[in-house]
UniProtKB/TrEMBL annotation, chains A, B:
<dbReference type="InterPro" id="IPR000524">
    <property type="entry name" value="Tscrpt_reg_HTH_GntR"/>
</dbReference>
<comment type="similarity">
    <text>In the C-terminal section; belongs to the class-I pyridoxal-phosphate-dependent aminotransferase family.</text>
</comment>
<keyword id="KW-0804">Transcription</keyword>
<keyword id="KW-0238">DNA-binding</keyword>
<protein>
    <submittedName>
        <fullName>DNA-binding transcriptional MocR family regulator</fullName>
    </submittedName>
</protein>
<dbReference type="InterPro" id="IPR036390">
    <property type="entry name" value="WH_DNA-bd_sf"/>
</dbReference>
<dbReference type="GO" id="GO:0003677">
    <property type="term" value="F:DNA binding"/>
</dbReference>
<dbReference type="InterPro" id="IPR004839">
    <property type="entry name" value="Aminotransferase_I/II_large"/>
</dbReference>
<dbReference type="InterPro" id="IPR036388">
    <property type="entry name" value="WH-like_DNA-bd_sf"/>
</dbReference>
<keyword id="KW-0805">Transcription regulation</keyword>
<dbReference type="Pfam" id="PF00155">
    <property type="entry name" value="Aminotran_1_2"/>
</dbReference>
<dbReference type="InterPro" id="IPR015424">
    <property type="entry name" value="PyrdxlP-dep_Trfase"/>
</dbReference>
<dbReference type="Pfam" id="PF00392">
    <property type="entry name" value="GntR"/>
</dbReference>
<dbReference type="GO" id="GO:0030170">
    <property type="term" value="F:pyridoxal phosphate binding"/>
</dbReference>
<keyword id="KW-0663">Pyridoxal phosphate</keyword>
<feature type="domain" description="HTH gntR-type">
    <location>
        <begin position="1"/>
        <end position="64"/>
    </location>
</feature>
<dbReference type="GO" id="GO:0003700">
    <property type="term" value="F:DNA-binding transcription factor activity"/>
</dbReference>
Length: 451, 451
């Protein structure tokens, strides 16, 4: 096959752009191989851009891509100031160079991803006849049921979304109009801060500590801003792993009720606890449809299983569904079916236990090493999630520090992306999702050297 | 397996909610089957909601779902008027009852969908080791190359998006701020009209005829509205199959240039022509990065392959990419890889030829029947796409007519969803994507009876 592909590539190279290649029949005869081999070789050349096929006409040498420069200066006038704020998000998506230790991204390393289980689930799902038909708009029933049970919700209140980010994008844009303030528990997830700004909403920071949102500050923030929506991560927040303590749950909901506001609960880390079980979702304490809970499977199954859910009750549920249809139409059915296969399949619970144990071990090692090598920094040991929030010595520039560690072979997350306004100290987010336990001491060593 | 599942279901039914089931080992012994069989049976019961499993704890009878009613009246005050407009979109997603003839939805019937080819492509893609890793942010290279060749663009200008709807949502929201007017060629796609309104943008209608947008009306619309963006479908538009004629292409671009505006080209129907090839995309005539072209594979491969592309050049390309990251993060890699496998695989061109032939035959039959049975209506025979735009007799109410045909066993698309403001006449959109050729005369008969 390689030989045939190489021969065809040579042939195409010798012909001018746009020239027609000999017919398949002719190539079979000339090259002395079967028609399937010829077809596969042509497919290869189509995929890498050497030839194009035109239905009913044949195979042609691809024309060289245009290299003429185009004057697009007029666009800057038309576009004006951009509402889109994506730097924090892009930083978390950028794949580090080979050999660089990764404490910047929240994606599990391959040893923790259930890749073969995912592949099997996908293959099984893809072969089901209904897998490629239009799914019910609210999602495949078995998947809605599963999310409902995991969260303690009614199945009818569960709406399947295309991943956590798509879910948050829809929820945040469907409730309050552009220009409105939205309270954001900080430090928080940059993807949400970007979403809010890109939608013309105004994020208002509400500080948290290791027990989550601080109620007295929350009350003041609602009063001062008039916001009608609060976004928080009560369970193993990104970046600091904080947990909304039991005694703060009711006060937070009561304060939101007094403000006539919605509470958007980002529950993405539910299965990332380092112990056996996570606290119940905040929606379990919700008595008047105030809490909208967003969850997704990406963190425990892999960045490509973009399947999540939105749990909401009352009129807001229809509005969310309406905007989701308008934005996405539907969530690809094969992905939903693969998700069902995966989470109800044998070994799923074992996978989650192994994941918890590995993340817990990494958090332990990281905490020990930081205490040992960086006495000038402070942090709270996280009880779940995939990141630790490290407070830096007074006056340290987080971006500059991140640049120095990068030069020495370690990528980390500058803290400024995780807060809305100025912070009272500078921080780094240190992810332990991708980095393996054995590399953590080295990584901390690099950090120590860079400080 | 069924027997074991039934036994377990009976067992669970006899226990109170929350009670723990016997261990797997015990069940294996009691039921006299292997552990894999027991596990599969339990998986079944998890999937349909009878039991829940908790990692490290066991399998438990599911608690009954809450049935307490919740007072959500406060939400109506908090939500206010909804910007979300989703009726037109929902209508196109609603699956008609069994036995009802479907001329309402633009999804291909199963005989035309390449389902088994899709399933194989997906299965092959899912088993590739890199299929579940984070893809490059702009998309898998082979897929970008393929789209680039199909559209005559540079690969570097191609950005992979999660389907056409996601692409349009991102593009339309990233360019002009809320409150801005956007010109929309009408009759047009309800999904875009809904998107614009939901984003707080103001759709301004620009009439088309069978040769596409009318330049003199376009010029006037730009002058009167001050809009800086035009959305159109130059190639086999939905709903009327119109084609932007060759002599109008340059004038449309010049008029947009004079207005300092972007032109968003929706090229979703590229491969739905009834003849051998479609006209080139409008971007081929673009000399200053004015045209942003959106395309997707959904129409020719199935509603669940939510993979598309956005082609743009200049500063606007970065803004579009930024908002796409913020809204979606990435497009699931297995879907991208499956798309590559599908479109470069053997038989793809044959599939497209068969599709064109079938759609052309249906369009022919539909045109003949309409001319024969409904002389009081008029239309232009479409040269591509999957729908025909039928002009109704003066004074006919489109919604009322759709209701009457529905009662008689035929669903159609009321024309009001496809125009922005009042139309000079009422219309129906008649899709021939789902209905097979043999049923068309019956369907037209129902329409004739209903009129």
């Amino acid at each position: 096959m390689q030989r045939v592909t190489a021969s065809l590539r040579e042939l195409a190279g010798a012909l001018p752009p746009g020239a027609k290649l000999p017919s398949s029949r002719r190539l079979v005869a000339d090259l002395g191989v079967g028609p399937v081999t010829v077809q596969r070789a042509i497919d290869s050349l189509v995929a890498d851009g050497t030839v194009v096929t035109r239905p009913g006409a044949g195979t042609f040498v691809a024309r060289a891509t245009r290299t003429a420069t185009v004057d697009t200066a007029w666009q800057r006038v038309a576009l004006g100031d951009s509402p889109v704020r994506s730097e924090g998000v892009l930083a978390a998506l950028t794949v580090p160079d080979h050999g660089v230790l990764d404490m910047a991204r929240g994606y599990l390393d391959l040893s923790l991803q259930p890749s073969s289980r995912l592949a099997s689930a996908m293959a099984r799902a893809a072969r089901r006849p209904e897998a490629w038909t239009v799914p019910p708009p609210a999602g495949v029933p078995e998947l809605r049921t599963w999310f409902a049970q995991q969260l303690g919700a009614d199945r009818e209140d569960v709406f399947i979304s295309p991943g956590g980010q798509g879910a948050l994008s829809t929820v945040l844009r469907s409730i309050v109009p552009a220009g409105s303030p939205v309270l954001v528990a900080v430090p928080g997830y940059p993807g949400v801060i970007s979403l809010l700004r890109s939608a013309g909403l105004v994020p208002v920071p509400v500080p948290t500590d290791t027990d989550g949102v601080r109620p007295e500050l929350l009350e003041r923030a609602f009063e001062q801003s008039g916001a009608r929506m609060l976004y928080l991560q009560p369970t193993y927040a990104n970046p600091d792993g904080s947990l909304l303590s039991a005694d703060r749950r009711r006060p937070v909901l009561d304060i939101a009720a007094k403000a006539g506001a919605f509470v958007v609960e980002d529950d993405f880390a539910r299965w990332l606890g380092h112990g056996p079980t996570a606290p119940p979702a905040l929606l379990r304490d919700d008595t008047d449809g105030r809490v909208i809970t967003v969850n997704s499977l990406s963190k425990v199954s892999g960045p490509s299983l973009r399947v999540g859910c939105i749990v909401s009750r009352g009129p807001v549920a229809q509005r969310i569904a309406g905007l989701s249809f308008v934005d996405h139409l539907i969530v690809a059915r094969p992905l939903q079916e693969a998700a069902v296969e995966l989470v109800t399949g044998a070994g799923w619970n074992a996978h989650l236990r192994a994941l918890s144990a590995a993340l817990g071990a990494r958090a332990s090692t990281l905490s020990t090493e930081l205490a040992r090598q960086l006495p000038g920094c402070s942090f709270h040991r996280p009880r779940g999630g995939f990141s630790l929030w490290l407070r830096l010595p007074r006056g340290t520039d987080d971006l500059e520090l991140a640049r120095r560690t990068r030069e020495r072979g370690l990528v980390v997350g500058p803290g400024r992306h995780y807060v809305v306004a100025e912070d009272d100290a500078t921080h780094l987010r240190l992810c332990y999702a991708a980095i393996t336990e054995q590399h953590i001491p080295t990584a901390v060593g690099i950090l120590a050297d860079s400080l």
